[in-house]
């Protein structure tokens, strides 16, 4: 059985995009995460070591968005998903899958709209 841990609305400031002004000026990106994992061991032991430390995960995701600009939100979403499936660069077998949504609410579109968002789901390797 897989449980789901969700963290939504992680606000970050990044310099991603294909246009020079996006790279220069930056903009807000909002990240939603859902991780599939078995939380029974953590519930039984009441030990943080038995589950995902979502405080540390959020800090790592925020840092990943705020560094190394890329052109596409597809690339950014893949970077974040890989981070969610690992811990310290090593595969975290507890996380079976990660669903990542990258919102780009200020995307340069010449129309009235409320959001641009990409959602990807990636499976862990373990």
TrEMBL record:
CDD domains according to UniProt: DHNA_DHNTPE
Pfam families: FolB (PF02152)
Keyword field contains Lyase: yes
Domain Dihydroneopterin aldolase/epimerase stretches: 5-122
Key word Nucleotide-binding present: no
Transmembrane segments: none
Pathways per UniProt: Cofactor biosynthesis; tetrahydrofolate biosynthesis; 2-amino-4-hydroxy-6-hydroxymethyl-7,8-dihydropteridine diphosphate from 7,8-dihydroneopterin triphosphate: step 3/4
EC number: 4.1.2.25
Reactions that this protein is recorded to catalyse: 7,8-dihydroneopterin = 6-hydroxymethyl-7,8-dihydropterin + glycolaldehyde
SUPFAM superfamilies with a match to the protein in the record: Tetrahydrobiopterin biosynthesis enzymes-like
UniProt keyword list: Folate biosynthesis, Lyase
Entry similarity comment: Belongs to the DHNA family.
Function according to Swiss-Prot or TrEMBL: Catalyzes the conversion of 7,8-dihydroneopterin to 6-hydroxymethyl-7,8-dihydropterin.
Protein's recorded name: 7,8-dihydroneopterin aldolase
Organism taxonomic ancestry: Bacteria, Bacillati, Actinomycetota, Actinomycetes, Propionibacteriales
Gene: folB
